[in-house]
Every structure is written in structure tokens, then in C-alpha cells.
Write a structure and sequence with these properties.
Number of strands: 11
Main location: cytoplasm
Strand content: 5-15%
Protein name: Two-component system response regulator YesN
Pfam family, one: Response_reg
Shape: globular
Helix content: 55-70%
Structural class: alpha/beta
Subcellular location: Cytoplasm
Keywords: Cytoplasm, DNA-binding, Phosphoprotein, Transcription, Transcription regulation, Two-component regulatory system
Length: 545
């Protein structure tokens, strides 16, 4: 389970982090937001099961947030933690199905009881949702899986064409008269999370809905059939054997039907006419080629004919070649300077924009070129010892999600950010060759000990030393047996114990001097580490003396 803490006071968020026994309630991930607006931006991607929220916050307050959650994410449980004993606040909490209303100051027993109740309710409802989804999935058993497999085999196995075609005709799936055919491929964007949410992130249900729409336009006139490609999760194939010249018009009708039902337009790649069943693999490849050659900068064109695109290619600029930019990228990577890397990638993407045409196949080719370039730089730099460096580079890049070249909503900025991230990690890995893991962690430790009074985050350290957060976390814990936040807290408490020997210093001043934002949080961390409060620690020192 995931939880989200929403409060405009960081000390309150930290107090909640410390007071709730998260693991006991089955909660493994916790994130924070400073107001309702920030929470609304985080929730669609983060999808917390539980939200703990304040009422009075800037931008969007607690009432705005609970109303929004109730409307858009009714499965999410929320608990209100407020400093105001206000009847209207309580009434709204009940109205929007909140599970509890807790008053500040927060009591450990009360908040853990509320979290346990909300988590238990969520788990029970989740079990019911899963059972309901399973029932929905069983709807797909009515689909002719057998015919789907047969039709797919026409696209992949020419040796079985004669036998499969006979079976399809015997089953009445493809008529005896089918001789000349055309194909189209509908390709779903797997990154369209909003669309997938409508179907409970169940691909089978989404495909079932799309197939119903397609076949409604095809089978009423007996002109063709739509089927799911058995080996490709996100593709639907349309086979027409009648009125094949009107395929484009019929696809527009299908797309209009999809838009009316799902508020989406889909992209279709089409083939020329060919013989059935012998030309089916070739026609299918033509459809995929049509999709791969579609111009991503044109937003309102959805039916793609690869031959038509290639006939216009003479009027387009020649595709940009990455090879002419390799030298500038290599210099930037070896410099170890993020700003130079960003400039090099910006120069490359600027030229891409100037070409005027960007296709999925070009993006895939450029991505392969950049991967080859990275491997080449590693080999040239590390020589015979390049294999460990290759492994380290792959690990550093594992946290980056590669953009999908077939994504419906294209963003060159997304690719620019991705390529910049790859090159920064390549630069960091090459830099680490001259600095062993032990030396790096010593430098990081020295930096923490010099800046422990300030907010020192893993993100800041990773950016400063040009190494991935995962690599730093792993190496730091190997050397110190604790993670970075715990090491910082231990260091702060050790410094605080020295300052506590001066009776003239107030607790709040000591807390601030060692890097804690308030006395209460300082006391909680101190007691968790030392077993006694700072005041008790000082008293024992006084008694001893």
C-alpha cells in the first residue's frame, strides 16, 4: 500500500512520518505534498491507497482535495488531521467518505488507530474489486480465441496458410469468396494511463471494447473482421475482403466510433491490396511500416499509408544523422560538465526540430545510434576493462524510463530529457573510473559532515557528484551499514550531545544548530536513537557532574 501526507507545515508531515507505524499497517511507500494542488498533481501517477490531509492549506484546501478525491479516485481512503474542531469540516469529511477526523496535536495512538481502520477498509474493498475484475475478465471467454489464433498464424506462418485458410472458411470466419484483401493495424498507446484507468488497467477489457467497435462497422456489411494479434498485446488487426478500396473511409468511421465511445482517436497503419492468404505476412509488415513512418508532428492525421508517405519523401529534408554530432557529445561527456552535456543534446534536438518531420522509426534509429555511441565511448575510454564499466552504466540508466516512439502524444522535450539523462550517467560512470567507490563515498561522507546542519538530500548528493542515487545509496550503506538519512541523523545527534553539555543553550537553539527545523522533531529523533529525551540526557549530565 502507498500513503500520501498532505500538509503545508513540514514539521507536521515529519511528525506523521514518525508517529505512524507504517509497516504494521502494510504501508510500504510514503510521499508528501505541501498543499492540495500539489497532491492533485501527484495522485494520478502515484495512486496512493491512503491520504492523510490537513484542512487549511494554500492553493487547494482540504475540502477541495477530499471532494476531488471523492470524484476522481473514490477507492482512495483519506483521514483528516486538523487543528480546527469545526462542524463544517467534519460534515464535509463524512460527506466525501473520509474515514476519520483527528485533531492536532496528533496523538500516536489515535493516528495509528485511524490508519489501521482506513488500511483495513481499503484492503477489504480491494479484494472485492479484484474479484469483480476477475468476473469482467471472464467476459473475454466469449471471444473466439481459437479464431484469433488462426488469423494470427496467417500473419506469421506461411507454411500453414493452406490448412489455416480451410479452417477459417469451414468455421465461417472468412468467406469462400475472399481472394483480394487489405489489412490495417490499430496500435494502442500503452502509456495512455487515463484510457487504461477507465478499464481498471485491464488490457483485455480495453481490447474487448475496441474489437466490439471495430467489428460493429465491419461485420454489419460482412466486409471484414477485426481480431487481436495473439502475439502483440497492443495491436488489433483489421482484415477486409469486400469493398477493399473503401478501407480508408471505413477506418475513419471506426475511428469516429471509438472517439464517441472512448474520447480517443486511434492510429491505423494500412496496407495495399494483396492475395489471400499468401500475401498476409507481407501486408501485415506494410501496416507496421506505415505506422513506423507516420509523422509524429502532425496531430490530426490518424490513417497512415506507408507508400503514400514514401512517395512524398522527395519533398522532405534528408533524415538527420547522429554520426555528425558524436564528436561534440563525446567532448561534453568526457568533460564531466552537466551544462555542456545539456548544450550538446540541445543542439542535436534543435536540428531535429528544424527537419520538420519526426517518425517513430527515426526516433528508434536515433536511440539505437546513441546507445551504440555510449558503448563505443566506454570501450575507447576503458579499453580491456570496459565490461565492468558497461555494467555500471546499465545500472545507472535503469532508473530512466525510455520514451515510447509509438506514443500518441509526441514530445521531443521528453526525448531530450531522456538523452540528457543517459549522457549525464555515462559521464558519471566514466568519472567514477578514476575515483574508486571507496574514494567517492569518503568524499560524500566529508560533504555530509560539512553540511549536516543544512537539508542534505540524496538527490542533491547525486547531482553534486554526478552519480546515480541508487549507486550512492548502495555503496554508502555497504561502507557505513546505514543509509544516508540515518547517518545524517546520527551525526546531528552526536553533535547535539556535545552542545547539551552547555546549560546556557536552549533546546530549540540546539535543534536548529544541528540541522533540525524544530525542537519537537529533534526530541523525537533523539529519543528514538538514544532511548531518552534530550532533556533527560542533559539532566543526567548535570546529576553526574
Amino acid at each position: 500500500m502507498k500513503a500520501l501526507i498532505v500538509d503545508d507545515e513540514s514539521r507536521v508531515r515529519k511528525a506523521i512520518q514518525l508517529l505512524v507505524r507504517w509497516e504494521e499497517h502494510g504501508i510500504t511507500e510514503i510521499q508528501e505534498a505541501a498543499n492540495g494542488q500539489e497532491a492533485m498533481e501527484m495522485i494520478p501517477a502515484y495512486r496512493p491507497s491512503l491520504v492523510l490531509m490537513d484542512m487549511l492549506m494554500p492553493l487547494k484546501n482540504g475540502v477541495d482535495l477530499m471532494k476531488w478525491i471523492h470524484e476522481h479516485y473514490p477507492d482512495t481512503k483519506f483521514i483528516v488531521i486538523s487543528g480546527h474542531d469545526d462542524f463544517e469540516f467534519v460534515r464535509n469529511t463524512i460527506r466525501y467518505s473520509g474515514t476519520d477526523y483527528i485533531l492536532k496535536p496528533i496523538e500516536e495512538a489515535a493516528i495509528n488507530e485511524a490508519v489501521d481502520k482506513a488500511a483495513s477498509a481499503w484492503r477489504a474493498e480491494e479484494a472485492e474489486r479484484r474479484a469483480a475484475q476477475q468476473q469482467h475478465v471472464q467476459v473475454n471467454e466469449y471471444r473466439p480465441v481459437y479464431s484469433e489464433k488462426l488469423l494470427t498464424s496467417l500473419l506469421e506462418d506461411p507454411s500453414a496458410h493452406a490448412q489455416v485458410a480451410r479452417r477459417l472458411k469451414t468455421e465461417g470466419i472468412v468467406p469462400e469468396s475472399a481472394e483480394r484483401v487489405r489489412l490495417a493495424v490499430l496500435q494502442i498507446d500503452p502509456s495512455d494511463s487515463t484510457l487504461f484507468e477507465r478499464f481498471g488497467h485491464h488490457l483485455d477489457l480495453l481490447m474487448f471494447a475496441l474489437l466490439n467497435i471495430c467489428n460493429e462497422f465491419l461485420q454489419k456489411d460482412g466486409v471484414g473482421i477485426a481480431f487481436r494479434h495473439f502475439g502483440s498485446h497492443h495491436r488489433i488487426v483489421i482484415l477486409v475482403w469486400e469493398q477493399i478500396g473503401a478501407l480508408t473511409a471505413r477506418l475513419h468511421d471506426i475511428n469516429d466510433g471509438i472517439h464517441r465511445t472512448l474520447s480517443r482517436h486511434m492510429h491505423f497503419g494500412t496496407s495495399p491490396a494483396g492475395s489471400y492468404p499468401g500475401d498476409m505476412p507481407k501486408l501485415y509488415d506494410k501496416c507496421l511500416s506505415s505506422l513506423a513512418s507516420r509523422d509524429l508532428t502532425v496531430l490530426s492525421h490518424f490513417i497512415h499509408d506507408g507508400d503514400e508517405v514514401r512517395s512524398l519523401a522527395g519533398d522532405l529534408p534528408k533524415a538527420l544523422q547522429f554520426g555528425s554530432y558524436e564528436d561534440s557529445w563525446k567532448l561534453a561527456v568526457l568533460s564531466g560538465q552537466p551544462n555542456l552535456i545539456a548544450d550538446a543534446v540541445e543542439a542535436w534536438t534543435h536540428e531535429i526540430r528544424k527537419t520538420g518531420v519526426i517518425t517513430p522509426e527515426l526516433l528508434a534509429q536515433w536511440d539505437r545510434d546513441i546507445e551504440r555511441f555510449a558503448n563505443q565511448v566506454i570501450y575507447e575510454t576503458a579499453g580491456a576493462g570496459s565490461e565492468p564499466v558497461h555494467k555500471l552504466y546499465r545500472e545507472a540508466c535503469s532508473e530512466l524510463e525510455s520514451p515510447n516512439p509509438n506514443k500518441y502524444v509526441f514530445s521531443l522535450a521528453e526525448w531530450q530529457h531522456y538523452w540528457t539523462g543517459l549522457m549525464n550517467r555515462l559521464s558519471s560512470v566514466l568519472l567514477s573510473r578514476t575515483q574508486s567507490g571507496g574514494e567517492l563515498i569518503r568524499d560524500i561522507t566529508d560533504y555530509i559532515e560539512q553540511h549536516y546542519q543544512n537539508e542534505v538530500s540524496l538527490y542533491e548528493i547525486a547531482s553534486r557528484f554526478h552519480v546515480s542515487r541508487e549507486y550512492i545509496s548502495r555503496k554508502f550503506k555497504q561502507q557505513h551499514q546505514v543509509n544516508i538519512p540515518e547517518y545524517i541523523n546520527r551525526l546531528r545527534i552526536s553533535k547535539a550531545k556535545i552542545l547539551l553539555q552547555n546549560p546556557a543553550l536552549k533546546m530549540a537553539a540546539i535543534a536548529e544548530m544541528v540541522g533540525f527545523k524544530n525542537e519537537k522533531y529533534f526530541s523525537l529523533v533523539f529519543k528514538k536513537q538514544e532511548g531518552i529525551s534530550p532533556k533527560e540526557f542533559r539532566k543526567r549530565l548535570t546529576d553526574f557532574m
